Give the backbone structure.
Amino acid sequence: MKILADENMPYVQQLFGDLGTIETVNGRELTAEQVSDADVLLVRSVTTVNAALLSLNSKLKFVGSATIGTDHIDTELLASRGIPFSNAPGCNATAVGEFAFIAMLELANRFGDNLKTKTVGIVGAGNTGTAVAKCLAAYGVSVLMHDPVIADSDPRDFISLDQLISRCDVISLHVPITKTGEHKTWYLFDETRLKSLKQGTWLLNCCRGEVIDNRALIKVKQQRHDIKVVLDVWEGEPNPMLELIPFVELATPHIAGYSLEGKARGTYMLYQKLMQVLELNTEKSMTSLLPALWSEQMSIDSVPNEKALLQLSRFIYDLRDDDEQFRAMILNHSSKNSRVNCANNNGFDLMRKNHKHRREFSALRVVSTGQSDVNWLSNLGFSRIGL
């Protein structure tokens, strides 16, 4: 059996190596000829799986995408051809939730503010939006949510988008990209909505770049310096608008979900599904893929203030490092290369490919002396040992 896998998908050899021959490929440049003799196709969001890509293949047994979304997959085509498909919903939700939470702490620190005094609006209450809300709730931050797709079937309270914009100091976006229909998210934040943001709003996008009209964002930011923006996703990836980057407080190349745990979880979910399709027993565990919890155990009597919480978070993941590297790799090359060459060869995809250092809060054991004021750290995600 031939397994064709994106070269940036981790742990493929460890999980799928016993099932057949593995060939890794550049997912963004994958061709029909490369797919022609594959039995299993494992992709990420950069690969569009459609009729053109599968035109030369008549033997596919399974297609898997180690992603939350499926907008890059023609699921109707796969169903019509009887090809089982699975994505990995929720695989990187914890990573995205912690990324957004840390980004908010960074903004609060940078501008001498306090996150705990903010009201945070979450647009999209699926796996990632819920993970953000979990972090905020653990810290005691007020949260409002908007999600018309699930509002009728979800017991949580939801408000309209206009209400959320008018009431929230921070807005974090966590919706799939949909181009048509009643709940279209393409350019959900167009120029009109961007202009309607409250004075001093923080706007974070960790879902899909086109949820915000990036050209309109440039125009609005030129007029309103009070709005602070965090972008992990960009319109036109992997070629972000270079002129937008200087207007963004924290800029990263679509790596909010790129924790070691999140990547392993995504690949492992596809392994589990393929084993079901092949009617084989799942003999490997996800925990066997990951390094052990960090040997460093941090003893904490209390977290005296928000700055101390930020320092603890930076011990796990310092978002400023990725922001600095992103700007250096993208902007510093722009004067020497064309925009396309700059993004493709020196920046966006290269940084994503090499992003292998990040862990989640759970990788650190927090050793508590028993004070109740640090119990909430386990709800935030840290592994906790009580003494």
Q: What stands out?
A: The first strand starts at residue 2 and ends at 6. Residues 291-317+358-387 form one domain.
